[in-house]
Amino acid sequence: MKRRSFLKKSVQAGVISSVSLPIAGFKLPDSEKLQIGIVADVHQDIIHDGYARLRFFMDDMKKRNPDFIIQMGDFSLPRPQNQPFLDVWNEFEGPAYHVLGNHDMRDFGFTREQTMAWWQMKERYYSFDHGSFHFIVLDGNDKNPGEWQGYDRYIGTTQKEWLKNDLRQTAKPTVVFVHQSLEADGGIANGAEIRNILEQARNSESRPKVIACLCGHHHTDYVKDINGIPYIQINSMSYKWVGGRFKKQRFAAHVEQAYPAVKNTCPYKDPLYTVLTLDGNSGKMHLEGRATSFIAPTPNDIGIPDADTMHPSITERNLTF
Q: Where does the Calcineurin-like phosphoesterase domain start and stop, copy by copy (predicted)?
């Protein structure tokens, strides 16, 4: 589908609903408006057309020129065949940030350090200021304590102390990015502990400094307010994982052979991504909505029990801080 046609359809269909939540009550005189291009869970090593999806996003970002872009993890492993994919990301002329996802390490035998070096990512967790706002990127892949099976999803002692100190040192409204959620099942195992750290960081008016926490990982779309902080799930650019029980072959044999895990997904027809606007003058933030459809057979077609909870969309959201 051509980009203009998809954008038109997204405006018509992507605004599923719009919510307005009171958040922190910041007043930032003479503050600028920031725009942030956001993409989550492209999964270049699982989806067969990750390059085209990222190309679509990047063409739009180059046209719109947001203040920075960020990918929320599960992006692409440092395999030679993925270099053209990374080259597309690196075309952006402004700041472009990375969040580490669980599939960005260990898969295909690669390490976190190899992926970071390939992305030219200097630190696995870090922070930066842009205008009147502060941004924190966390790494949710620390080793879980005790016996643990599967991918690690934890924030360890050193990173927790760094986070507390970083929040103490800023007076600016703060947005947190982390791959795995801090509030959902299957997210950060000590998510409640990390949420408490975010909640304890207060400004001079005793309001939370953190105005939003954005996550990927779960390939879903919702916002949950916990003690005045909205935790916003950013849907995958590419698909919903459904596992081997519901696997279906949708593409040509050579595609399925090159990307054997794609049959365990319900792919989205068009790429999903969003732009977050932070307006310091009005104290409002806006998350763009976008919607597409599943490539058939859909979750309903193949009889997935919770198919009605699977939506190939990102909901438009209006929040205040």
A: 35-220
The rounded distance, in Å, linking the Cα atoms of 218 and 187 is 8
Backbone angles phi, psi at 285, to 5 degrees: -130, 145
**pLDDT at site 26:** 55
Domain span at 228: 3-320
With tokens 């001079």, the residue in question is 204
Beta bridge partners of residue 212, listed in sequence order: 175
What one-character DSSP code corresponds to residue 210? E
Q: What's 47's domain CATH number? A: 3.60.21.10
Domain count for the chain: 1
Q: Which helix (H) or strand (E) holds 11?
A: helix 3-13
- pLDDT for residue 15: 40
Low-confidence ranges of the chain (pLDDT < 70): 1-31
What's the rounded Cα separation, in Å, for the pair 137 and 321?
20
User: What span, in angstroms and rounded, lies between the C-alpha atoms of 241 and 239?
Assistant: 6
* Per-residue pLDDT at 281: 87
Helices and strands of the chain, counted as H and E runs: 7, 16
Residue 24 contacts residue 208 (beta carbons within 8 Å): yes
Question: Is the pTM above the cut of 0.85?
Answer: yes
The torsion of the CA quartet 287, 43, 122, 111, rounded to 10 degrees, works out to 150
